[in-house]
Amino acid sequence: MPANLTASSHSTNYNFPALIFGILLIIIIICGNVLVCLSVYTEKALKTTTNYFIVSLAVADLLLAVLVLPLFVYAEFQDGVWSLNMTLCDGLMTMDVMLCTASIFNLCAISIDRFIAVSIPLNYNRKHVDQRQIVLLSATWILALAVASPVMFGINNVPNRDHSECKLEDNNYVLYSSVCSFFVPWVDCDWLSMFLSLISRKKKVLKVIPIILFLCAFLFCWTPFFVVHTMRALCEDCYIPSSVTSIVTWLGYVNSALNPVIYTVFNTEFRKFFRKFLPTLPNCC
């Protein structure tokens, strides 16, 4: 989701900690998610239906690190001042909304897939993607594009726009995107996580714990962001420090680095593949 890159009326103060942290975060997200994609592509044991959904999530996180985070880090390094052209800003906002929404929707798709697998296992194809799963995978990306499309079509081009900051300009759109990208999926995923947890008492726990952890990490990382930005949209006169906005935005992006860790910890085949590329991983992994 879009970061609120606040303008500064004084000379730019360069934020070196944000630059260092941002570069490290980008590297971690890229490396982790590339390894996830490679592992499913190369390892026969990992070519399962669930893992195709995980690859879709990894692709969303990977694109976020490549297309969105570099510009976000650049702006944070300049203390929130946007010094590039507004067309690039609108492109950043579009990709930010779309890819973060796609990441969230993919988490929900994984939950729905697990729900189907444990509730009607006899009708679930574990090795090959069937039509139902293709529809679910396609829907995550089509809906994410639909949520981001107003920015693509110029909703940010408002009169007297401040060119020294890059943000979503329309508060109604902020509310719309927050509801579509987070609050509705949150309700669905929360219900599914509870279902997967009554099942974990009867089934093999390791099959559902990773999905529950995905959802917990997702809620921990993204709830502060959407609460803060919804408050900003609903109460324009409310003062929210720019530092708070930056912190909750960084926290949301950290979620893209956590997902590969969850795959690796709870899947033996992923661990084996990661060890081929990362021989220094601790034995406990």
Automatic annotation (TrEMBL):
SUPFAM superfamilies: Family A G protein-coupled receptor-like. One of its GO terms (molecular function) is dopamine neurotransmitter receptor activity, coupled via Gi/Go. Keywords: Cell membrane, G-protein coupled receptor, Membrane, Receptor, Transducer, Transmembrane, Transmembrane helix. The keyword Transport does not apply. It is a multi-pass membrane protein. Pfam families: 7tm_1 (PF00001). The chain crosses the membrane at residues 20-41, 53-75, 95-122, 134-153, 173-196, 208-227, 247-266. It comes from the Eukaryota. It is found in: Cell membrane. GO terms for biological process: adenylate cyclase-inhibiting adrenergic receptor signaling pathway; adenylate cyclase-inhibiting dopamine receptor signaling pathway; negative regulation of cytosolic calcium ion concentration; negative regulation of synaptic transmission, glutamatergic; phospholipase C-activating dopamine receptor signaling pathway; regulation of dopamine secretion; regulation of potassium ion transport. Belongs to the G-protein coupled receptor 1 family. This is D(4) dopamine receptor-like. It comes from Sinocyclocheilus rhinocerous. The gene is drd4a.
